[in-house]
Amino acid sequence: MAKASDLNVRLGLIFDEKALGQAERSLRRAGDRLTKVGNEMMTGLTLPIGLFGASAIKAAGDLESLTLALQSQTGSAAKASEELQKLTEVSRNPGLGLEQSVRASIRLQSVGIAADEARGIITQLGNAIASTGGTAQEFDSVTRQFSQMISKGKILQEDISIISENMPVISQLMQKAFGTSNVEALRDMGISAKDFVTQITAAASELPRVGGGIKNNLANVIDELQISLGKVG
Asked: Does the reported pTM lie above 0.70?
């Protein structure tokens, strides 16, 4: 009679507990590695997707805030959306940015300047500021002072000083528009704050046009990304 060991050899069914244990441990290690790889993939994908989602939602919120602020001046969501599109085109010019252009329009409209006229002021002031290397930040300061001047109804030296810091060509524009850069002389001439802004804008329109450079192109790309993210959000 054949022994059990002989049958095991002949059938190739040797029961080796040690070998089975090694195989089990190898499978467990392989499973652990696959689990680790899976977790790393999930982390690698989830984190960027989460960050993208958060950025998109923030951009959407920013665009919504700008649109709602415009709506407070235009009177309807449709008109606000239309005005936002027009300001988006304007903001591509040197010295401007989308957010700063929208805020400037809101400020100017809030002191009685029509939306079309506000876009003209924004365009000319942006070019004047860009002519001396200024950016959207300087533009924001200038339009804030202009709107405050109109609101107060006075031309004050302190306002002109702040404007001069951000738009150095203001003295040149005042000289061109009024024949003087002296604030007291302007008041004696009876120039109102609104007339001041209007005539400074007209003088600025005669300045050479500033071409878009790398800095302006980069600012436009950032604005476009914000708009795209906002639509996704």
From this structure: no
Tokens at 185, concatenated = 């002389």
Tens digits of per-residue pLDDT, 160-172? Answer: 999 999 999 999 9
DSSP the chain: ---HHHHHHHHT----HHHHHHHHHHHHHHHHHHHHHHHHHHHHHHHHHHHHHHHHHHHHHHHHHHHHHHHHHHSSHHHHHHHHHHHHHHTTSTT--HHHHHHHHHHHHHTT--HHHHHHHHHHHHHHHHTTT--HHHHHHHHHHHHHHHHHT---HHHHHHHHHH-TTHHHHHHHHHS---HHHHHHTT--HHHHHHHHHHHHTTSPPPPP-HHHHHHHHHHHHHHHHHHH-
pLDDT of residue 155: 93
| pLDDT digits 0-9 by tens, 123-141 | 999 999 999 989 889 999 9
Q: CB–CB of 119/106 below 8 Å?
A: no
| Most confident option among 43-52, 65-74, 147-156 | 147-156
